[in-house]
Structure formats: C-alpha cells, structure tokens
Design a protein that fits this description.
The chain is mainly α. The chain has 13 helices and no strands. Helix 8 packs antiparallel against helix 9 and helix 10 runs antiparallel to helix 11 (196-216). It is globular and about 65 Å long.
C-alpha cells in the first residue's frame, strides 16, 4: 500500500516534527513551549478542533488548511512531549491508528462481506467491543463514554441515536412532540419554584427532547445552534454600525428598533 507520491507529504511532516522539536529544545527552544505539559495543552486540542470544524463549514480553502495545520500541531506536540518522557512517539500514534483502521475494516482489508453502511457500523462496534475484552459492549458503558468525552450537546445527540438504535424510540414524531410539550410544562412549573437544581434538571430534560426532535427531523443541533450564534453576532455588529454611542445608552425600545433594522438589512443583503 505504499504511495509513490508520499515523499513530499513525509518531507513536510518531518519538517513540522523538526520545528516542534526545536521549539522544545532545552537550550534554544521557546520558553512558552518548554513550559507546556500534556495537560496544559489539552484545551488547545478542543479549541483547534472547533476552529477546524468552523473552517470546514465555511468552505474557505485557506482557512481549512490553516486550521487543520493547527490541529495537527497539537498531535505532534503531544507526541513530542510523550517522546521526551519515554512514553511513545508520533510513529507509535500513526501505527496505532493504521492498525485500528485495518482491524475495523475487514470488508476492505479482509474477506468480510457487507451490504451497506449499517453492516459496517455493526461490524465496527462488534470489533470495538472485542478489543475491550468484551463479547458485547453494554449500552450503559457506551452512553457513559459519550458524556465523559464529548460536549453535552454532541453527547446528547450521540446518546439519542444510540438509544433509538437499541429500541428506545417513539412510534412516530407525534410522540416526540408530546414529550416536548410535557417537558416544557414541567420546566415552567419548576421555574415557579426557588429550587435551582430542579429548574436545571427540567431545563436539561427539555433540551434533550429538542435533541430528539432534531434527530427525528434529521437536523444537526450543533450546526443549528452555531448558525443562531453567528446570526446574533451579525445583527449586533450591524446595529453597532448605526449608532454613535454605546448600546447600553439605548432604551429597550430603541434597541428593538435597531435589532429589527439590522435583521432586515442582513436579510436583504443575503
């Protein structure tokens, strides 16, 4: 499976490895890089992953290249620190994922036959469970892994999908809407009490139901919320172009008028 065009790729990757090693050089390296630990760098992994996703969704070629590079840097940095500690190297990381992909794709690298995506997914989960020393992976273990490793909204969608696949599902979308109305009513009741913990519980139940609605309608809640966040920022930005003093100096009526003006302007401009 050797790629005859791999030399430029390997050369560029080696260049990045050398740059990172230089940054970590005890005598001539960068003080900031030398002060880092695997734990101190973990927030940057999450940050760079989100920025890469944003770039991909924007379709901006240069931004995608830049942000994927930043994300790759985090992998190389973690591997460099581990190598210095005698734990593992970037080669180990690459070898591990290569072996995993081959192992979990027996229909590509072996003689297993599949008829579609669902067969592939089922094989993947079965092989994954065997790797963990289990004949099957308990649903509770899988759902717990989502909450441990993913942001809450992403975890909720994963949990919803997996639970539905195991039979925890409404017969039709009317049942989901009924659940939505039920949870909305319970949240309103909770908000009429002074019990903050109860209020947050009911808010969480309502949000989880909304995630289920998104799943039924084949919508991406992460993308939907991200779009709303950006539209809100865009409207505030447009409002600030109309004013000559801080927004805090305006009344709520004036702010509403500015908001509607900004909304119409952005809608007209596409």
């Amino acid at each position: 499976m050797t790629n005859p065009d791999a030399t430029p790729i390997l050369t560029s990757l080696q260049s990045l490895i050398d740059v990172v090693a230089k940054l970590r050089d005890p005598d001539e390296g960068c003080p900031w890089d030398l002060a880092q630990t695997p734990e101190s760098l973990t927030p940057y992994i999450v940050e760079e992953a989100y920025e890469a996703v944003h770039a991909i969704r924007s379709g901006d070629r240069d931004a995608i290249v830049s942000e994927l590079g930043d994300l790759l840097l985090q992998v190389v940095l973690q591997s460099q620190l581990a190598s210095e500690a005698g734990q593992f190297t970037l080669a180990d990381v690459a070898q591990s994922i290569s072996e995993k992909l081959i192992r979990r794709h027996p229909h590509v690298f072996g003689d297993v036959k599949v008829s579609g995506v669902e067969d592939v997914r089922a094989n993947w989960e079965e092989i994954k469970a065997i790797e963990k020393g289990k004949t099957t992976e308990l649903l509770s273990d899988k759902l717990s892994s989502y909450t441990e490793k993913l942001p809450p909204l992403t975890a909720a969608m994963k949990i919803s999908n997996r639970a539905a696949a195991m039979g925890f599902e409404w017969e039709n979308i009317d049942g989901v809407w009924e659940k939505f109305e039920e949870e909305l009513g319970e949240l309103k009741e909770a908000l009429a009490t002074p019990d903050l913990a109860h209020q947050e519980t009911e808010l969480g139940d309502l949000l989880f139901t909304i995630v289920n609605l998104a799943r039924w309608c084949k919508l991406d809640p992460e993308r939907g919320l991200s779009g709303t966040n950006q539209r809100f920022i865009d409207r505030i930005t447009q409002m600030e172009r109309y004013i000559d003093r801080p927004l805090t100096d305006y009344s709520i009526t004036e702010l509403e008028s500015l908001w509607q003006q900004a909304k119409q302007h952005l809608k007209a401009s596409g």
